[in-house]
Each structure stands twice: as C-alpha cells, then as structure tokens.
Amino acid sequence: MLLQLNAQFDLQRDVVPWLSKQSVRAPLEDSSADILGNNLETLQTVNVERNGNIIYTWKGTQGHTYIGLYDPNSQKNQHLYTFEKDLHVISCSVNKEKTLLAVSFLQSTTEERLNLFHPVSKCLTLLTEIHPVNNVKVLKAVDSCIRVQFLYPVAETNAVPESYLLLISEDKYIEKIDIRVVKEGDNVMIENASQLSRQRIADDLIWTQWDMMEQTLFYIVSKESRDTLYCIQFYPDTNFKLILEAPLDISLGNIGLKFVNLDYNYSQDQEMISKPLNVQVFTSETGSLCVCYNLVPVSPEEVTYSVSFLHKGYSKTYTITLDRVESSEVKDLAFFNLDYYVAVYVPGHFLHLLNTRHPDLMCYNFFLTGGNAKINRLHTSAILSPLNSMVLDRSTGSIFTVVMNKQALLQFLWNSKMDSDRLAALHCLLLHMGSTKELETQIIQWITENTSTCFTFDPIQEFITASLYWRMCLKAIKLDKVLPYTSLLYWNEDIPGIICRTHIILLPLLKIQNCKGFWEKLSSSLERSKCAEPHVRFNSRVLRKEWNKLSDQRTEERTVYTKSALENAKRVFSILNAWNTEEHIVPLFQEEDYQQQLLTGLIVAQLKDHLTRHLQYAGKKKIDQIAVDYVSKLLDLICQIMENVWKKHSLDTWVFSCRQQGRSDVNVVFHVMCWILQATNGMCVPLPPGFHTLHMDLGVRCLPLHTLLHYIDHGVLHLTEKWVMKLLKELDNTEKNEKLKLSILTRLPEAIGHKVSQLWDDPVSTNTIARNYVKLLLEKLRNKRYSMLVVDRLSPRTEFLPLNYLVNMLAEMERQGWMTSVEQDNMNARSVEELALKHTTMLLGL
C-alpha cells in the first residue's frame, strides 16, 4: 500500500477513556457513575479548528448533550458546554481563546412534540459565553440549517478584544458577525450582546468550502453564462477581501447548497434524498489551485471525474473502466488533498494520485488498482480533507494523517513493469519524498539493474534532473519555476483502462495586487502559465546549439568566450576538490580534460543567462553562485552513481592494468558507464574529468579488439592522452600488442597523436610521424595547386595499387624539391615507402 494512514484522532482511543475517568471523579450530569451510558454511538466529531483542536459531542444517560474539545498537542480533553436537552448538533465552533462557543442544532423530535401548540424554529444558532458559563445569545432561529465557524487570525498575535464568526445558511447566503468582548478579571463577557455587528458577505451561492489553514472561503455562484468560483480572504483584523474570481467549465445547476469542511455530520448527509455534485477545491503551499468534481458516468462500468488545474489553465477529464462492478452500486468518489497530489479514491476499485505541481505529463500520476490501491482503515466514501495530508472519516469520526510509504514506493518501483508506473514512482521518490543520499543509493541500485528495460525514458537522465531540481529548489525560492524537473519533453503513451481528455480553460482573475503567501505563489504560477513552459525552464537544446557553435567557430570573440567558460569550470571544480581528499574509491578528477572543462563552463554560462532573464529580482552574485552550485551538484550526482556501482561490484581494491583481462563484474560496470555516457550526451551535460580514461580502462579489458575499435569509431569510447600513454608504457611490442597500439594511434586526435609520437620512441610512433608527414605534404599540395606527373604504369613488383600510387607521388614530389621545405628530420621518400608498406601488410595480416 503506497498510502499509509496514521490515526491522529480516534474517539474510542482519545475520548472514551477520559469520559470514563470523569464519570468516576465528578459526574457531569447526575449522580450516575456512567455519564456516557450505552450511547457510544452518539459520540461524534463536529469540527476541526485551525489550531488542530477537535470538537466533538456526545449524549449522556439523561439525554443531555455535551460538547468537548480535544487538543492534539497536549493530548488532553476539555469539557466545553452542556445542553440539558437532547439536541442534534449540526455545527459547532469555538474561538481561539476558548471563551465563546457557537452552536447550531436541530431540536429533537421530542422537543417538537412538546411545542406542538407553540411552533418553534427547526434550527437554532446560539452564541454562548463559556469562560465562565454565562449568557446565551440566539443568533438565528430559522427552519433552514446554519453552519458556524469562528475565524482564527493567521498571524500569531495577542488576544484581541474581538472575535469574528461566520454564519453560512442553507438559504444561500453568508454573514460575518463581529463580537466584542470585555474582561472582568478572569471572566470574559460579550459586550452589547443585543446589538452585534452583522455584515452580509455573499448571496446566491450554491456551493461553499472553508479552508481553515488559509482562512479563506470558496463559494460558487450560478450565472447565466457559466458558474463562477469566488474566494474571500479573511485577515487578522476585521478586513476581508474578495481575492479571486474564476469561471468554471462545469454547471452545478439548481442544487441544494453543498458544504465542504463545514459539515461533519455523516448521518445527516446519509438522510438526504439526493446528493449534490461532489465538488472540492484543493490548494498547496507551492501555489497550486485545483477544482475536482465527479461526473455522471455513461455506463455503470465507468467512473468519470474532472480536475481543473486553475494555476495551469487547463482541465483534464478522466474516464476509468472498472475491472469489476459489485451488485451494489459504486459509491461516490472521494477526493482528498495530499499537497503534492490530489487523491481520487473508490474503495475496492482504484486509487488515482494526480500530480498537482506537474500535471502536464500523465506519466507522473499514479493509477493504482488491486492491493496497491487499498488504504487500510479507510473503506468508505464518507471522507473529508480538512487539512493537507489529512482525512476525516465522517462515519467513525476518526482523523488520519496520510503519508507516502517510502518502502512501499521503492517496492512498487522494483515490481513495476510499465514505464509510466516507474516514472511515477521515481518522480514521487525524488521530488515528493525528497532526494537524500540514502534514497539516492537505493534508486541507483534499481537504475543499474533496470536501465536496459526502460524504453520510453532514460532513468539516469531522470535521476539526475529530478535530484538536481530537489537539491536546488530547497535553497532558493522561485527556482522551481525555471529549472527542469524532468528529462522528458512529452509523453504520448496510453495507459490501459484510462481515457484522458484535456481542455483549455480560462485562467482565474486575482482581484488584488501585491498579495502575500499562497496568493503570491498562485500569482506567479498564473504569470508563468501565460507563456510557453519550455521557454521558462532551462533547456538542453539551447545548450547543445551553443556547444556546436563553440566547437565550429574559431573567431576572436569565441576565444574570449572560451576563456570565460574555462574560468567558470575552475569555480565548479574548486567546489569538487574535496573529492580527492575524501575517501572516494573512483579515481576521478585526477587529470585535465579540456572538452569536459569547456562544456562545464559553457553550461554555467548558459544557466546564468537563463536565470538572469527569468529571475530579475535576484542579483548577479547570487545567480552566479546558483549556476555554479547547480553544475557542481550535477557532477557530484554522476560521481555518486559511479561510487555506488564501484562499491557494489567490489572494484575498490581493483588495480587497473592494461595487461589484465576483464571479469564479469567489470563488464557490468563498463556497460553502466556506457549508459551514463549516453545519458549525459542526450542532455548535453559534462562528465567528471577522468571519466573517459576509466571508461577506456574497462573497455580494453571487456571487449575484443574489433569491438573496441568499433566503440571508439562511433564515439562510445573516447581516447585520452593519459590512457594512451599508459597503454604504450605497459604493453610490450609483441605482435598482438603492436596491432592494438597501431589501431589506437591511427585513431588519435591530431593534438594527442602529435604529443604521443614525440614522447615515445617506437616503430609504431615512427609510423604515426610518417602518417602526419604525408598529411602535411598533401595539404601543401592542395593549397598550392601543384600539378605533378601521375605515373601511368605501376611497378610490377608492387601489387597494392594505393600504396604504389602514394610512393610514386612522394617520389615525384621529392624529385621536384618539396622535401627541402618540410620540417621533418631523417625522413625521405624511401623511408616513407618502407613504413607505408609495413603499415599495409599489418592491416592486411600478411
């Protein structure tokens, strides 16, 4: 099970033992020792306040109604108030100071019969003083139900002389009541209770939801054109503002008013003849704003629901085909908020976790069925999500925190056969759970054994990109909007049993400027949704284009740019200098690699330019440091992969020598390095200096000569000066070794080949000098357009025609005096002929 429930509050565990003790010490109702009696079923949760306090009610032996409070921080219960009547409590709320209690209740059937000849209102809403128990003020006496909710200041301030109470009526309006209190010693009393200030906030609403953490009230108003979502933000003082207006792509129609996070009474909900459309709004601390609702399915075998990602400007409608349908109808969908994900749950059928931060690619969503979709102790659709990563089962009154089970996620990753499941697990582990050293080690183990089985994505690329995203975004704000979180550009693979349709919707309108907190982040998300996503996030395509320019051009401007790039690389490597001093077993950073240094400096420069364009508020010094840190962490991740592979295959004591043969473990490590090279080439990112030398060390042991040369010719293996010098030094001049040396030297880049030839005295080295000498002659011939006599008749003594042509051409050039202008010692046409002949016979195996 990927989702794990932890019981934060349980009536039987946290309340019943306390009630039993209270009945013995000081009975609250009468002389009876059992204040709860046999009425355990009457114990129910009625509200959760912003500070986490939970309000519950129960009935005593005489039918009296009690209201209590549980503080999860102190794990203590408190009796708040007693009504000496049998009441059906609809809604209840206590102010932050726990001095005022607002209660809305339906009078019992018995009460209605007693007042048969004096009709009374069906619903009463009372405001009572509870510190001490004193006056009672009737706020509403109507036939429609009322929900009550005290406002809690978002900012932690001292106790204020006023409390603010919301009244939400089923008659489709919302009022705010200002309650001023006065203190007389330890007593708190309502000031001027007969003339409380009231203010109408909204009218004609058909749906409303309370967000206790942000102290916001969402509501929907039905208009002629389309239904519109509004949001009111309440502030610590008396002010409140309409902060958001968003047209919706759904129509709720003429339904009864639906309450979300204001209605904890499950039994009353069950008694309703027709349930309105299930709509919920979810926010996250990163600025995500989602509207979830279920739709009427076309057939009983299907479930259809939609999620509008208002912060992105599009909605997605999902149709799920159920594996089986029980005789009883499928219950309503349950939506709950996990901050990073929105969960869509149908017990016994499926669990869908939608990624709210990166919803564009379906492969980052979980579509779970069977045992993976099961959530222990949560088997009903009567679910509320009053807080992020928290659910309340209204049928039992229990409150659970919901967390991702890391070990279950890792097991899911190992067992998954579909790339979409693997990507969802990788993304969740690295970006939601958090990329730690321990977790990265476990993921690297999976990568080394499963890279070849992934067909639609490169797991090494995904690991590097996602880990970098997590590491960098923890340190600086707004980087999450401009750095890549995935190596994928698109995803067009189908997921069996699921149909997804995407619709463009209008972006919501924020009514205020210079907002803070969640609204500031939402505003930033909306601004970035107006421009194309690839242009906002750092992209390797631009880097590759610049790298190609840098490799092709040799202008003075490029020379200056190259010097600047190399200076950037020095800063990156200075951070990684600790690699040589710490106990690392992979011999990296022990040589200079000009190409990798240049690419390292280039990515730093390109990242600086990108951040400067999109983070205008940040200073140059900070942006420079972010770019250097990003690239240094990138190289560190590659080194970390190497370290884990080295340790796993016990290469820490392995002394590399060109004379040794490879073993099975070395073959595995060699292929892992091939995958790393392929991944970094695809992203156009650098490798740690020394990587190519190690790769060649492994390759010469693992591969036969023809395969080794094939890998070199196709760029899988890269020849380095350090490795070639090591090869020439360690191998003697046997026929087999001469063939290997010759094959390698003929493939050396010009700069390395010239240096190696000058430093090593050997027939093979002389051969290389001859090769370079012929190249020089031919270049001069081409530049001067020199016309020479071509010998028509070839010598009958030489049967290799290309060689005969070359010898005649060189002889003619020497005869005409070309040799005097060439700065080569001890070299003439005859010696070149002999070397070329030896080269030819070796290649032909003669």
Commentary on this structure:
The chain is an alpha+beta fold and 846 residues long. The chain has a domain of 166 residues. A six-stranded mixed beta sheet has the order 19-15-16-17-18-32, with no helix packed on it. The chain is elongated and about 125 Å long. The two termini are 68 Å apart.
Concise synopsis of the structure shown:
The protein has 846 residues and is of the alpha+beta class. It is built from 23 helices and 32 strands. The chain has a 6-stranded mixed β-sheet, with no helix packed on it. Strands 10, 11, 12, 13 and 14 form a 5-stranded antiparallel β-sheet that branches. A 5-stranded antiparallel β-sheet has the order 20-21-22-23-31, with no helix packed on it.
Proportion of residues in extended strands: 15-25%
Q: Using the alpha-carbon principal axes, give the shape.
A: elongated
Mean pLDDT: 81
Number of separate helices: 23
Instruction: Give the beta-strand count.
Output: 32
pLDDT < 50 stretches:
28-34, 785-801
Q: What can be said about the biggest beta sheet?
A: 6 strands, mixed
How are strands sequenced across the largest beta sheet? 19-15-16-17-18-32
Radius of gyration over C-alpha positions, nearest whole angstrom:
38 Å
- State the share of residues found in helices, binned by percent: 25-40%
The structural class is alpha+beta
- Could you give the distance between the termini? 68 Å
